[in-house]
Design goal:
Layout (H helix, E strand, L loop, with lengths): L4 H22 L5 H14 L3 E4 L2 E2 L12 E2 L2 E4 L8 E4 L6 H7 L2
């Protein structure tokens, strides 16, 4: 088992529980930005600091976009490591790449 498995499991459970709480309170039919704002507030209430729509530098095979890329959300967990942030939004991106593009 990976040494960070327990921390990741706890973080995952917290994020899913927060998303369920927002869904129960707001129900479907609103625009995404409202749910995103509510989720950030709910995660804050659960002790997780979040950053939304953070700019990141993107490069693909030497090409750079005309405008900056943005992440969906980042969660910073004070209890684990203050400087490491956990990225949400692209589970297929390998962790080593995620660390390279998130502070």
């Amino acid at each position: 088992m990976h040494p960070l498995f327990q921390k990741a499991t706890g973080l995952t459970e917290t994020v899913i529980a927060a998303a369920i709480e927002v869904h129960r309170d707001k129900w479907p039919g609103l625009i995404e930005s409202i749910y995103e704002w509510c989720l950030l507030k709910e995660l804050g209430l659960r002790g997780l600091g979040c950053v939304s729509q953070k700019s990141v530098l993107i490069e693909y095979k030497g090409f750079k976009p005309m405008k900056e890329g943005k992440t969906n959300s980042q969660i910073q967990q004070e209890q684990t490591e203050k400087t490491e942030s956990k990225r949400l939004g692209n589970p297929w991106l390998p962790m080593r790449k995620q660390k390279a593009i998130t502070p």
